[in-house]
Amino acid sequence: MQPLTLCLFLTIGLGLAACGNGTGTERYVIDPPASTQFAGDQLGATELLEVSLPDYAAGDEIAWQGEDGAVRSNSSILWADQPQRAFTVTLARAISEISGASVIPEPWPLSSPPERKLDVRVEKALATNDGYFRLEGRYFLSAEGSGAGAHHSRGFDIAVPVEDDTPASVALAASQSITLLAEQISTLGGPGTTIVATVPGGGGGDPFADLPPLF
Which pLDDT belongs to residue 205? Predict the structure, then answer.
């Protein structure tokens, strides 16, 4: 497996620019493959907030890291959809398919409120110069409503090989990384913490029952 080379991307870009009329622009879809795993439902009805991406990953152009460490892109090599929207929608779908939960991107469309909210904050989403697409960051799952329940804070560090130095391979590896993240979230996996919140008074009866009388 060879590291991504700036040379090939520039060659592709120059060739497309020669077309001159825009017909040579390439657009690539974020489309996570179906997972072979199935996890029990630990999320229930969950609202997925719009996934936070670094600036270089949130733009229309597909970014990669050159051998000198610089992050570059080309105006003729684009994502087919706005990356934050595509990442959010496909991640919600993948988690739902793996876990059986109802994970829905914001805004919440149902009359009954969600039981939980999921916040995914990506710190790195990049085809790096070591031949991998790296997806790193943290996710936070919080209980809604009364405040009782478990709140999770977890990290993820995913590396998917980029098979060859082409935009299509980068798009495929990026899509595969979303599937792997969905598998991790479905099982609440990854390093981090769990905080169990309880309703004052033990969750039953009058929450102020232990307070002294006012008179």
Answer: 47
Domain spanning 41-55+82-199, CATH architecture: 3-Layer(aba) Sandwich (3.40)
**What was the pLDDT predicted at 150?**
82
Whose CA is closest to 119, among 191, 25, 30, 47? 47
What does the alpha-carbon distance between residue 177 and residue 160 come to, in Å, rounded to a whole number? 6
- The per-residue pLDDT for range 2-52, each reduced to its tens digit, is 554 544 454 444 333 333 345 589 999 999 999 999 998 999 999 999 999
Residues in the chain: 215
Question: Which two three-digit tokens encode residue 203?
Answer: 């969750």
What residue ranges do the domains of the chain occupy?
41-55+82-199
Asked whether the predicted pLDDT for residue 147 surpasses 70, the reply is no
d(CA 195, CA 118): 15
Spatial distance between the Cα atoms of 27 and 13, rounded to a whole number of angstroms: 13
Distance, in Å, from the CA atom of 150 to the CA atom of 142, rounded to the nearest integer, reads 7
